[in-house]
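## retry 2 of 3
previous attempt timed out at serialization; input unchanged, resubmitting
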Amino acid sequence: MSSPQPKIRVLLLTQWFDPEPTFKGLVFARELMRQGFDVEVLTGFPNYPSGKVYPGYKIKPLQREVVDGVSITRVPLYANHDQSAIKRILNYTSFAASSLLYGLFGAKRPDVIYAYHPPLTVGITASIIRLLRGVPVVYDIQDMWPDTLHATGMLNNARILDIVATVCTWVYRLVSHIVVLSPGFKRILMQRGVPESKIDIIYNWADEASIAAPAGKISSEFPGADKFRILFAGNMGKAQALEAVLDAAAILQQKGSHISFVMLGGGVEVDSLKLRANEQQLTNIVFLPPVPMTEVGAYLAAADALLVHLRKDPLFEITIPSKTQAYMAAGKPLLMAVNGDAADLVIQSQGGIVAESEKPTSLAHAAETLAGMNKDALLRMGESAKDFYQEHLALRVGVRKFGDIFTRYASLKNN
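## retry succeeded, writing output
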């Protein structure tokens, strides 16, 4: 009788992990284990986004813990997330150095390393471990550097941006395989010389538990059922360009429309948006403070349609905002005002209507189109969005695709 095959050992290398907010955290590790992998997480002490170490943690040379059956190893780093470039670099490089030491000398030899980008320093660490220990690396690119650094204003020095681009090219060459979150990311990497065969697209998933079982009460300021409620939930910063939404609201108010926009969340632009809404005397837009993700689901369920909006930018045309997946999983029609890959998802799913980014007349027209549909048509549209999510974007689907890649490279290494 043959002995059972040993489980494939995967080392998840990521600077950010639960209890920090992250796309590929504990739910990813748990699902990998459920699908039959042996998982160890190598991460830092939680301090994002405040830059202060979370209560219950204290930075030390090494800490091991088990959460929901997942083995987590934490290594020291310089905890900081303020606007100082030097301090931010120290934050990144300190984790890179300590995770490199553990990855080379402390970790039980994995069959494959999963490395989460950003920051780029994690990719450097993973590449060095691959060179010295011969372990295949699957590199998950969530931000396109140096493009994002430049577009967000985080880094504007042309010479440093060129250095970052050079290091990115080095990492892309060394890692075994690359996973990206959109077709646009894949196109850019291919333009930069990465072979198509080395790249897979695996879309991000949503916080399915919070959406499936929404908790908490909805604010009394949430408009009633006599209004057609279009909800924007999330950060309100410069990238979201929400002045266009206010201008669309002004157009609709002048027409006497029963459409109401609900802006749920925080961000650096909230105060200026509120001031502008007051100046325009808009009565069809409501601002609500941010709520925990566990309570966002209740608002998604109460809305009639869900809004995604980003400013016009080549980078955002290849980006799929994370709220896209959350909205689809909630099963409500989307009003997608982001050009490019995110709009293509909505069109493929038949789960919403696409409007032109930063064009108030287009936004207003799309909102009127949704509001003019009967309830059955809206229900079908929402169900189409949810069905598309379940088939193409869900947690189990994405993790299975990662698992297939891990299995392929682990078998290559062992043959």
